[in-house]
Specification:
Layout lengths: L1 H18 L3 H13 L3 H20 L9 E8 L7 H17 L25 E6 L3 E8 L1 H4 L3 E5 L6 H13 L7 E8 L2 H11 L9 H11 L14 E9 L6 E8 L6 E5 L6
Parallel strand pairs: 1-2, 5-6
Antiparallel strand pairs: 1-3, 3-8, 4-7, 5-7
Helix pairs in contact: 1-4
Bound molecules: iron/sulfur cluster.
Iron/sulfur cluster binds next to helix 5.
């Protein structure tokens, strides 16, 4: 029963994430469009909005790249962490291949042989955390934006370089990650932990930023890359930062670049097994 519930919730979360963008992102996107002054950028936003309308009307994925699949699971104390959780997620993803449908994106890194069903060695990525509710969050991640993500091990004395590393990441990326982007930033932790922080930052609501995040976002927007790299006032919708304590000799910084197709959807399973 647990495995079946997880499978159904996983399929639902993928389907919602692929077809509709989250409300907080839509609010932030519409706010950005209202403030844009560049006519080419304004026209590009019309294309983006039409893309979203068509995906909703036809119940099809927003983008042809339906992503590589990442899941965040929260488990309340009453739900045991067993192999059913993992197997349910794999099964739900395999079902979604047909029902959404998904493009098969998972390949062996060396032979490039495609597994054909978006599963494989160590994919999907599954992160499990304790929580008050039993939830499954799907974040299908497009290759174009993931490829532009970067990690840097700064010196502890280089705190002032954090902002320039983030801005430089978008300067190098240009239009390739399909802006306007959301930047998930990890600061601190370890070499492996900082990339997890950057990914988790993408789970945060993007229609609010603190002062530190807003300052970095404004600096990125001064690049003028604009939607799809065609120029404009806004290259970045939001910067979200997650911090972790780090070694006294280290200052890891990771930037996970997320394209405008900022997919994320959460399904909750209650104690009666309802979704
Ligand atoms: S980067 Fe995003 S919008 Fe661009 S092709 Fe990939 S998934 Fe689609």
């Amino acid at each position: 029963m647990l495995k079946e519930n997880v499978s159904i919730a996983t399929e639902k979360a993928i389907m919602e994430a692929e077809i509709h963008l989250p409300d907080d992102f839509m609010r932030a996107l519409k706010n950005t469009i209202l403030k844009e002054t560049n006519p080419v950028a304004k026209a590009e936003y019309e294309n983006i909005l039409e893309n979203l309308r068509q995906a909703d009307r036809l119940s099809v994925p927003i983008c042809q790249d339906t992503g590589l699949h990442i899941f965040f699971v929260t488990l309340p104390p009453k739900i045991p962490l067993t192999s059913d959780i993992y197997e349910g997620i794999y099964e739900g993803l395999r079902r979604a291949n047909e029902s959404v449908p998904l493009r098969p994106n998972a390949v062996d890194p060396i032979t490039r042989k495609n597994s054909g069903d978006n599963t494989g060695v160590n994919v999907p990525a599954i992160h499990i955390r304790p929580g008050e509710k039993f939830t499954i969050t799907a974040i299908p991640k497009g290759g174009g934006s993931e490829n532009m993500s970067r990690l840097c091990m700064l010196l502890p004395s280089e705190v002032s370089k954090i902002k320039s590393f983030i801005v430089e990441t978008m300067l190098v990326a240009g239009g390739r990650p399909c802006p306007p982007v959301v930047l998930g930033v990890g600061i601190g932790s370890t070499f492996d932990g900082v990339t997890a922080l950057a990914k988790e930052a993408l789970l945060e609501p993007v229609d609010i930023m603190d002062e530190y995040e807003q300052d970095i976002c404004d600096a990125v927007n001064e690049l003028g890359i604009g939607p799809m790299g065609l120029g404009g006032d806004f290259t970045c919708i939001a910067v979200k930062v997650k911090r972790g304590h780090c070694h006294t000799a280290s200052l890891p910084v990771a930037v996970n670049v997320q394209c405008w197709v900022n997919r994320r959807a959460t399904v909750e399973i209650d104690m009666e097994g309802l979704f």
